[in-house]
Amino acid sequence: MKYIFLIQALLVSIVFATESITPTQTADFFYHKFGDKADPHRKVNHTKGFCVSGEFLPRKDIREFVKVPLLYTKSEVLARYSIGGGNPKASDKSSAHGFALKLKNGKQEWDFATLNSVINSGKTPDVIVKFLEVIGDPTKKKELQELIKKYPSVKRAMDYGDTIGVPVSLANVQFNTQHVYRVSDSDGKLMNAKIIFVPQAGIIELSEKEAKKVGDDFLEKRLEADLKKGSVNYYMYLVLANPKDPVDDISAAWENTNKKIFLGTLELKTFKGNSCNTDLFLPGMLPNGVQAPVDSVFEFRNQTYSITHQRRE
Ligand code: HEM
Hints:
Blueprint (H helix, E strand, L loop, with lengths): L1 H17 L4 H12 L14 E10 L16 E9 L13 E8 L4 E7 L9 H10 L6 H10 L1 H11 L12 E2 L4 E4 L5 E10 L8 H6 L5 H11 L2 E9 L19 E14 L16 E2 L6 H15 L1
Helix pairs in contact: 2-8, 3-4, 4-5
The structure holds protoporphyrin IX containing FE.
């Protein structure tokens, strides 16, 4: 009898050890780590942020490249820049910058929530959430080391993060979906493609000396000032997968030999302050002609973001 209990206990612990984290548990994790009862409506990740609006202007011959009617004409754009993590006072010098977008034309909508890094720390939600749990926590250094040992993607993402400096302005940052979408070509055949937003003003970082001089809160004011001088523009490109590129792993870097298709330009024009800070940017909001990425993180994000959005309503 004693042995049966022991075997049962062992089986239960194996099941728990191998069970994957759920979107609800992930939302609980963010609320536990970053939630603030005094401010229940704010986001619990990418909390610090601000909004701007503008337009997407397609290239003239876009129909020769993609069958995505939303992109055929000018569309409205709402964008939110953010810093990763749930600290509303996070330093702008932190390396994780987010860029969320809504492209709308009254009939269809395409939402994005992109990052300045091209790769993520893991292929699965388990690894990514564990990484978010331990990174930057001095009491969890050992767990971070264990995670790094088990998953090379964690070290790769950290090393990559170290190469990112402090931007001169958010107008000088490239943003990446990491996920691989399936986008219809002009004949309706699906192409595997990541999407990137390349700053027209170039990717420019501060020198170490300059970075020491700027405070922790300069990027919002800087972008507001940039917008007073003219629009802040990004070129939107599809980056097509080569035959051997993984399409189901947001922690996998592709070689730099991929064909790019220019789709059009985001022209951001108006500073909107914190007006969209509680809006939901749902990556699964896709237009006709675009199918969801097949990796295991994309749908998980949609479910998690819907839960955190509901909780802060
Ligand atoms: C398992 C993986 C991930 C988890 C658990 C996660 C979790 C979250 C959560 C809870 C939010 C707040 C959503 C809200 O309440 O509105 C958020 C926002 C955000 N996430 Fe993720 N995320 C993941 C992966 C990613 C990836 C792969 C990217 C981009 C490549 C990304 C970029 C962003 C951005 C830019 C925002 C801010 C969106 C906004 O401005 O509203 N996240 N994330």
